[in-house]
Write a structure and sequence with these properties.
Elements: H1 3-32, H2 35-42, H3 47-61, H4 64-76, H5 82-95, H6 97-104, H7 111-124, H8 128-154, H9 161-172, H10 174-188, H11 191-203, H12 209-222, H13 224-231, H14 236-261, H15 264-279, H16 293-312, H17 316-326, H18 350-381, H19 384-412, H20 419-454, H21 461-487, H22 490-520, H23 527-553
Helix pairs in contact: 1-8, 3-5, 4-5, 4-13, 4-14, 5-14, 5-16, 5-17, 6-11, 6-16, 7-8, 8-11, 9-10, 10-12, 11-12, 11-16, 12-14, 12-16, 13-14, 14-16, 14-17, 15-16, 18-19, 18-20, 18-21, 19-20, 20-23, 21-22, 21-23, 22-23
Length: 559
């Protein structure tokens, strides 16, 4: 087989393999839905629970990169702390070994019928959940079909003098193997894919087991680049979480590479495998040699990540301290986005459940108001922690909206509600939408501030005074709307409605003043878009405040 044929088979097979991994992972995530995020948020009270959570989630979605990127995002949003994230990342490293074990079972002969079944379900079954199952099966089949094609292309390499020489160099210098694995995984962006390629190379006799182990370590290091990329531009805590993933695998390689060079680690893997087999009734010991090279590599991958986690788990605090040292920055306040009052024990009592939901609404309203406060502080003071708080608070409002909605629907669906309870449910479900939008507009304000900074816009003193006046008025009207809602204060709600006209008038006044400053040349023309968009977002926050106040004085809906 010539070079062109080898490349075509390898690249085509790799493409099918990567598409299969992606399709399978996306299908599994679609089936799981938002529950993955909930599992990650709730399953991290201790580092050990975090490890188990990371393992389960990665096993479900078949992507350690997907789990770590999601974890970095949750840290960035303030929904997880760094210590919680470290546990999940450790578990994700164990969970990703599932793919290698699946490949070790040599299911290539069944790839085509699995693909056919997946396509049939995907195209001919209209049920959405089942269509996701079809997507998973299609991805699963493509994964193995891609492996088969890659195997055909890689087989001639065992007779290539250049490749034999390169792999022989790995025998003499295991660090070269680590480098090869790291670079290949960085390029491919999937440790599952590169380990699959490694298993197929070994299966074709191109790579020996001893040569494969250092490359395997490099694959584990290379996969951390995805989380590092996800951390770029994120909060300090999110960057530290991504850095921990890298540090965790580097430390593991530093521990196990010397043991591999002296043959200790491979011997340990063999003995552990034989011992596990001995414990299984009817299996007996001494199964290592009968596993086949693919499963041997999978077992090595699994034991490496499991042992590495057991070694480093007691030192979660130390890992956090190290990444904090290497990634400096002010400690950010993490917004507590967890519901405070949604006690699920009261699902059987709609009256108490709705009272709890109403209290949670006020908690959500307070968080949204703090987002506006920090957006204002960021605009005028340009302190990065204010921006990060806005990001966290906006994420918290999204999270609380979902939690409150789910709680209310589960507590009231199918129940014989009184008119008062129906009205309360209607008000709760409506008002949280306005509060969530207040959080969205706060994010918009921080983005406009960033744009002004990047564009080096010139701010006039008069414009700043105008915006400060509007910010303060909007803050006042929003807080008044919350007070009116909390106390069912109709008189205060009516005052808020009167403020609506004042804000509209102020917006018009500020627009006219801005046009005058542009005509006089006292304000930079580039500032126009920023100024007008800021007052537009503030006016919208005022509108949502009015909507909230209306619920305090609205007539019963009986819905």
């Amino acid at each position: 087989m010539d070079i062109q044929s080898i490349l075509f088979h390898f690249l085509g097979g790799l493409g099918l393999f990567l598409f299969g991994i992606k399709s399978m992972s996306e299908g599994l995530q679609a089936v799981a839905g938002d529950r993955l995020r909930v599992i990650l948020e709730k399953g991290t009270k201790t580092p050990l629970r975090g490890v188990l959570t990371g393992l389960i989630v990665t096993g479900l979605i078949q992507s350690s990169s997907g789990t770590t990127v999601l974890t970095v995002g949750l840290v960035n949003a303030g929904l997880l702390t760094l210590r919680q994230a470290i546990g999940i990342i450790m578990g994700a490293n164990i969970g990703t070994t599932v793919t290698a074990y699946l490949i070790g079972f040599k299911l290539e002969d069944y790839a085509l019928p699995i693909i056919a079944l997946g396509v049939f379900i995907l195209f001919f079954i209209k049920n959405k959940k089942l269509s996701y199952v079809g997507q998973v099966l299609l991805g699963f089949g493509l994964l193995f079909y891609g492996m088969s094609i890659m195997g055909d292309g890689l087989a001639p390499l065992k007779d290539s003098e250049y490749f034999i020489s390169l792999m022989s160099s790995v025998d003499d210098n295991p660090l070269l193997g680590v480098l090869i694995g790291t670079v290949f995984t960085i390029v491919v962006q999937s440790s599952s894919a590169t380990i699959g390629v490694l298993q197929e190379l070994a299966n074709q006799g191109v790579v020996t087991y001893q040569q494969a182990v250092p490359i395997l370590f490099g694959d584990n290091i290379g996969t951390t680049i995805t989380a590092i990329l996800a951390g770029i531009g994120a909060s300090v805590a999110a960057r530290r979480a991504a850095g921990t993933h890298f540090l965790f695998n580097i430390i593991g390689t530093c521990i196990f590479l010397p043991l591999t060079m002296f043959g200790i680690f491979p011997l340990m893997v063999e003995n552990v495998t034989n011992f596990i087999a001995f414990l299984i009734p009817g299996a007996g010991g001494g199964v290592w040699e009968t596993l086949g090279i693919k499963m041997q590599i999978a077992q090595t991958h699994g034991i490496f990540n499991l042992t590495n986690t057991l070694i480093q788990l007691p030192f979660v605090g130390a890992l956090a301290a190290i990444v904090t040292k290497f990634i400096p920055g002010d400690e950010e306040i993490v917004v507590d986005s967890a519901p405070k009052y949604l006690d699920r024990r009261f699902f059987s009592n709609p009256s108490i459940a709705l009272a709890n939901a109403s209290r949670e609404v006020m908690h959500m309203g307070k968080v949204a108001g703090q987002a506006v406060d920090n957006a204002k502080d960021y605009y005028f003071n340009r302190q990065s922690h204010n921006k990060q708080l806005v990001v966290q608070m906006e994420s918290a409002t999204d999270h609380l909206e979902n939690q409150i909605t789910d709680y209310v629907l589960k507590a009231t669906s199918g129940k014989n509600l009184t008119n008062q309870q129906s009205d309360q449910r209607y008000r709760v479900l409506q008002v949280i939408g306005d509060m969530e939008r207040v959080g969205d507009h706060s994010i918009n304000l921080t983005e406009l501030t960033d744009y002004a900074l990047e564009s080096k816009v010139k701010f006039s003193e008069d414009a700043q005074k105008d915006l400060l006046e509007m910010f303060e008025m909007v803050q006042h009207i929003y807080q008044s709307s919350l007070d009116a809602l909390k106390n069912d204060d109709v008189a205060l709600a009516k005052e808020v409605l009167e403020y609506d006209d004042l804000i509209d008038d102020l917006e018009a006044k500020l627009r006219d003043g801005h046009i005058n400053r542009l005509n006089e040349g006292t304000c930079d023309g580039n500032y126009g878009a920023v100024f007008l968009n800021v007052i537009s977002n503030l006016e919208r926050i005022g509108d949502h405040s009015v909507n909230i106040a209306k619920y305090a004085m609205s007539e019963p809906k009986h819905k």
